[in-house]
Write a structure and sequence with these properties.
By secondary structure, the protein is of the alpha+beta class. 36% of the residues lie in helices and 17% in strands. Strand 6, helix 5 (166-176) and strand 7 form a beta-alpha-beta unit.
Length: 258
């Protein structure tokens, strides 16, 4: 197979962007062009793409850090892009209710992320109060065989299946930091590239963890995008939350704090 010249590489990039209305990351665009024509040196592809994406009048817009989109798609709000971890049909199937993900995320916190050794799906307004209730709450505490002990840490998470509610969910996660050592926002991986970039920046600035998932409750494929940062909560609100948990879920309370 002959090596692609600069013009052919750029034409291929247009084709890939045309097939991805939500945009593509620079690294993904480079990867896909190279996969289609592996005999073309990667440096040649990189140079051709750089010239294309940095030039004016190309019909391509930079919509987020390192992410590019055909300009004709830039004003079409709500276009979805499926990230590599998602199945191809994830952007077109209906998303199940968020409650169907509570239990699996609680399990993921314990078994995969190891951010907690006990976790409970709660949701709704079971803990009452205008600051709301996390969808999932857990604790990380020292085990009996740990040589170096540490105080119990509270972990909270807010899960949204509607990508239009991410701003609300982020605000809730900030509120949860009043009583949590770590707080996570969990959103579908069909979120637009632009919204994801903004959410990543906000989470990094405020210490909130960001996790994405696929729309299949059986295989949610939770993926950490931004790790949650540890911070001491306000102990008044932490104790207030603990008392409400004891009143509403006494068994969970004793499992968490005994």
């Amino acid at each position: 197979m002959a090596h692609l010249n600069r013009k052919a590489i750029q034409a291929r990039a247009y084709e890939l962007l045309e097939a991805s209305p939500g945009g593509l990351r620079w690294s993904e665009l480079l990867k896909q062009v190279h996969q289609g024509d592996p005999e073309t040196p990667q440096n040649s592809i990189q140079g051709a793409l750089h010239a294309l994406l940095s030039g004016t009048g190309s019909g391509i817009s930079k919509v987020a850090r390192g992410t590019y989109q055909l300009s004709k798609y830039s004003d079409q709000a709500g276009e979805l892009i499926v990230f590599p971890s998602a199945t191809p049909s994830a952007s077109v199937v209906s998303v199940p209710p968020e409650a169907e993900f509570y239990e699996s995320f609680a399990g993921w916190l314990v078994d995969t992320a190891e951010e907690a050794n006990e976790a409970q799906a709660i949701g709704g307004n079971m803990l009452k109060g205008k600051w709301g209730t996390p969808d999932v709450i857990g604790v990380l505490k020292a085990r009996a065989d740990d040589i170096l002990k540490f105080p119990t840490q509270i972990v909270s998470a807010e899960i949204k299946t509607n990508t239009q509610e991410t701003v609300t969910a982020f605000g809730q996660c900030i509120a949860y930091r009043l009583f949590s050592h770590k707080s996570y926002i969990v959103v579908p991986n069909t979120i637009t590239q632009d919204d994801l970039a903004r959410l990543k920046a906000l989470c990094s600035l405020h210490g909130v963890g960001l996790v994405t998932f696929t729309a299949d409750p059986k295989v949610p494929d939770y993926t950490i995008i931004v790790p949650a940062q540890y911070a001491e909560p306000d102990m008044f609100y932490a104790n207030q939350m603990a008392r409400r948990l004891r009143e509403t879920y006494p068994k969970t309370f004793h499992r968490f704090f005994s």
